[in-house]
From TrEMBL:
Pfam families: Acyl-CoA_dh_1, Acyl-CoA_dh_M. GO terms for molecular function: acyl-CoA dehydrogenase activity. Residues 151-246 form the Acyl-CoA oxidase/dehydrogenase middle domain. This is Acyl-CoA/acyl-ACP dehydrogenase. InterPro entries: Acyl-CoA_Oxase/DH_mid-dom, Acyl-CoA_Oxase/DH_mid-dom_sf, AcylCo_DH-like_C, AcylCo_DH/oxidase_C, AcylCoA_DH/oxidase_NM_dom_sf.
Length: 410
């Protein structure tokens, strides 16, 4: 297993407490009731609902901020924020609970996460790499409502997640940093209040010189070069390309609380959440298909009902295995360390299992699943797109294989 993973055997308590089950049920009810009705709109329009609608939906949520922030701030259950005994009664309370809550949101639709403050790797990067003043201004500013959207600028046209190859540079001139370069396929970049940009401070040094900088929306030299990409799934949030043209940044825009290795822990901590998103979508699709089939009375040929039930049971068992593997990565994080290989294993393999279950759910439902009369085809595109967020399955599998068998694995 990955560095440090052997210190944390699979011993976390997966059995949810009553209060945990109740909270997750409330989140699912909120997601189905208030989030799902807008799922087709956000997909067709490549846009979120208007801000008033988002605010109204968020106000009805049982939790006040994104599940990804449970690790740093605990579960913000409305009306129970300061109830220490209640928080202790919830499984995990941090990443584990946040991941279970993420899966619950998927009962409505993936876009539901965007209604809640947080849910962004940029904020997580600030909290992991920033100093006290930076965290208060930029990360806590999201909680205070001063910032609505944050972007994380890593990917460039010539490289995906091989971030040792980035060409965006930050050059020190006196007490300022001069930022130049470009990023592509960046979520929320066209309208984010600020972008956390990964740049090279020592060209040619690979990971050694990679550092994160905060670029404000109003900084002179920030240019949106591609306002929006058309894409397969997760269309609810915009992805854009941006350029940085001699942007002058003060020293306090550098997130200098650690090396690239520490930044990698940001990804290690967030990848399991991507895994639970895929698991949640697949589980929702399976439930939807089963309910639809059961709602349509039909004569069953000999043995076909039994085979249907067997396929459903096999799919639920596969989801359960993926869920446990992914929650384990979150549990390790809760013990004080975000293990990179566990995070990549959780994301890489849970998406494979989830996509297979999603496709099986489509088959169980038949031709209706591929029509726009149902959300099944939309969810299937979302789950395939989810495979690319935070790195593709092949990238993760290569990392896991190299950890197991050596660096020469291709």
């Amino acid at each position: 297993m990955g560095e440090g993973a052997e210190e944390y055997p699979d011993m976390f308590n997966y059995e949810a407490t009553k209060n945990t089950k109740d909270l997750l049920a409330q989140i699912r009810h909120w997601a189905v009731t208030y989030v799902r009705p807008h799922a087709r709109f956000v997909d067709d329009n490549y846009a979120l609902p208007d801000q008033a609608t988002i605010d109204a939906i968020a106000a009805k949520s049982p939790i006040a901020h994104s599940p990804i922030d449970f690790w740093s701030s605990g579960p913000a259950v409305r009306g129970r924020e300061n109830d220490a005994d209640y928080v202790k009664s919830l499984n995990g309370g941090r990443s584990v609970l946040g991941m279970m809550a993420t899966e619950a949101v998927m009962a409505g639709d993936l876009w539901g996460l965007q209604t809640l403050p947080g849910d962004n790797m940029g904020e997580v990067a600030v909290r992991n790499l920033g100093n006290e003043q930076q965290i208060h201004k930029w990360a806590d500013g999201i909680r205070r409502g001063e910032y609505k959207r944050v972007a994380m600028g890593m990917t460039e046209v010539h490289c995906g997640l091989d971030l040792s190859q980035i060409k965006t540079t930050a050059v020190k001139q006196g007490d300022k940093w001069i930022l130049n370069g470009a990023k592509a396929y960046i979520s929320h970049a066209a309208y984010a209040d600020y972008i956390v940009v990964l740049a090279q401070t020592e060209p040619g040094s690979g990971f050694k010189g990679a550092r994160c900088f905060i670029v404000d929306r109003h900084d002179e030299g920030l240019e949106v070069t591609v306002p929006s990409y058309e894409k397969l799934g997760a269309r609810y949030y915009n992805q854009a390309a941006v350029a940085f043209n001699d942007i002058v940044l003060d020293e306090d825009r550098l997130l200098n609380g650690g090396s690239f290795k520490k930044f990698a822990q940001v990804q290690a901590a967030t990848r399991p959440f991507c895994g639970l998103q895929a698991i949640g979508i697949a589980s929702t699709m399976l439930d939807y298909a089963v309910d639809w089939v059961n709602a349509h009375d039909r004569p069953w040929a000999s043995g076909r009902r039994q085979r249907f039930d067997e396929l459903v049971e096999d799919s639920r068992n596969a989801i359960a295995k993926a869920r446990r593997m992914t929650l384990h990565a979150g549990w390790v994080h809760d013990q004080g360390r975000a293990d990179n290989i566990l995070g990549q294993r959780a994301k890489g393999y849970s998406t494979i299992i989830s996509e297979a279950v999603a496709f099986k759910a489509m088959q169980l439902m038949g031709p209706a699943a591929w029509s726009k009369d149902h959300l099944m085809e939309k969810w299937y595109r979302d789950i395939k797109f989810n495979d690319m967020m935070g790195g593709t399955r092949n990238l993760h599998r290569i990392a896991v294989a190299r950890d197991q068998y050596g660096p020469d694995v291709q």
